[in-house]
Amino acid sequence: MTTLAYRRDIDGLRAIAVLAVVLFHFGVPGITGGFVGVDVFFVISGFLITSIIWRERQAGRFSFIDFWARRARRILPALFVMIAATLAVGWFLLAPKDYEELGRSAHYQVTFTSNLLFSRQHGYFDVSSDIKPLLHTWSLAVEEQFYIFFPLLLALLSSRLKHWRLALFAVLLGSFGMSVWAVEHEPQKAFFLLHLRAWELLAGAMLAVLPKHEWRASPALAQGVSLASMALILIAVLGYDAKTPFPGATALLPVLGVVGLIWANGQQHTWVGRLLSTRVMVGIGLISYSWYLWHWPVFVYANYAAVDGLSALELAGLMLFSLVLGYLSWRFVETPFREKRLLAGRKAILASALVGILGLGFTGLAIREADGVPSRLSEQALRFAQAKKWSPDLLACMADKDTPDDRLFCHFGPKSQSVSALVWGDSHATALIPALKVGADRHDISLVEASFAGCIPLDGLENIARCAHFNQRVEKAMAEQTFSDVVLAARWSLYVYGQMSGDKEHALKDPGTGQYVRAVAEQRFAQGLRERIQSLRAAGHQVWLVKEVPLQEIIVPYRLSRLAMMNRPVDREGLVVAEHVKRQAFITQLFDELAAGDSGVKVLDPAPLLCGADGLCRVELNGRALYTDDNHLSDVGARYIEAFLEPLFSSLQSRGLTAN
């Protein structure tokens, strides 16, 4: 085998890369663009791997099997140990849905495709990414895919084409062009997928296969290039942030910086090269792979256990702890395998790799298929976790596009020809069913409910065609049946303001521009509600407007189960009352105005039963979750606030509208 001359400065570059990533992930001030450390790794990998392949090919000694065996020896042992440890810790720490996702991530990563999984989920910078212990393996998947395909491509081009370097450069340009396009049109794919990242690895590869020449750069030129190149990397590390469109054109800075440093330091002994070659930098570079592997699970699990975040001192301690784990992994896992003190033969390492892939892959798949193995939770934690599931009865009552007309309504109370009221709305109307059922039975009232998830029960404001069709079907059914009362219940603020996270997908848009404007959304909602009430009143219906329950800032079953797993108190969880009042201010004012101007319009508000004198809108009662997520009441929650519907049932009863 032809060996590549060792360059201390490249290990120093690895240190720059891993320090950038780790400091960024641990939130060190100023390192806002530390994510470009991955791009530094990509260029280094492209250069070193291609250098090895090309020298062996020139010597006539290259073997695909030997190459892949060396890659397996270098990458897989430490990776598999980290994945196994992450799964083991997750068993004791993670809520079911998170453990299920971890199992899915492990299954994908051992097949070198975790980047494909993450490209279909939330973005790299989203808050939800902070609870994915194996998110960082996306970059390893990209490299592993490159190691599989690139040797084949290089062999094909170099053996068939005279100007194969130009062809390879054309592939680089093609990948870069697609990356630039994807950053604007498909940013998640641009970040995670091989063909949109390949140009970075190919930049290092092109440097490795440059034709040999006698000319050597002058010391002054090498110094200038190395200083400028380091400046490019630092500008990206210190100047970029999560809002920077990336990779695409902005990735040119770190990529060209690494290419420049490798070239310049290969020409002359530069000041930057000496800095990178110091003992500390080389030492960090040697353990950079293992440190990269361990730092992210440590960060994720510590934040997960802390629930409400970590102090700067705690983060510093955790970063040091991850460094120690990285060193131990390098010393006792990486090095013995790399130096062939363990599984020295090619067949032995490949067979062991296959065993590891199958073992961890099937373990991850089993965790996924078992829904995160909820049986491992304590009784209380499991009770909270299970609150996320809607009962089959509720799901059956929520219409979809295929629901036949004879099943559009769900009936509650005594079976009778005299149905007195219709409850009409979106999934928040569905969530009220346990309370409606209890009240209907207690008061001997017959009523029906019609709901469709994400569909506001107001004409002309539906943002999707199936909602308009659903509302039309309800209106047609109302014309064919006699209802004395109509109850409108929905997550009103979703359509006026969007999600609490800021997502405006369901919010009412300006018809002229298609953009969200708060004042326009409020005006359209007010007009649509007035028109709906006018039409209902004209048809002789008593109208009831149901205010929405307090929207929480947490996924309630998930949060409570996490706290229960760690024996943490849950009684202080919930939205601050003032926040609920603030979000609902316009809607509350509108409802009150409509009720004040028409005795045939009444308002029902569940919030007083959920929000207490302690200033919180509660999410838990006697060890039970009151919500299924951050906005829908659970069965327990709906039954708990059943009393807020008492005015409706009392009114129906007093008017003699009980079932015959």
From TrEMBL:
In short, the EC number is: 2.3.1.-
Q: Which residues form the Acyltransferase domain?
A: 9-330
**Which cellular component, as a GO term, is one annotated location?**
membrane
Q: Where are the transmembrane segments?
A: 12-28, 34-54, 75-94, 138-157, 164-183, 189-209, 221-240, 246-264, 276-294, 306-328, 348-367
Enzyme class, top EC level, equals transferase
User: Which GO biological-process labels does this protein carry?
Assistant: lipopolysaccharide biosynthetic process
Q: Output the Pfam families linked to this UniProt entry.
A: Acyl_transf_3, SGNH
Keyword RNA-binding belongs to the record:
no
Tell me if Zinc-finger is a UniProt keyword of this record.
Answer: no
Q: One GO molecular-function annotation for this sequence? A: acyltransferase activity, transferring groups other than amino-acyl groups
Residue stretches making up the SGNH domain: 401-646
Q: Which UniProt keywords apply?
A: Acyltransferase, Membrane, Transferase, Transmembrane, Transmembrane helix
Q: What is this protein called?
A: OatA protein
Q: Please name the source species.
A: Pseudomonas fluorescens
Task: Tell me the name of the encoding gene.
Answer: oatA
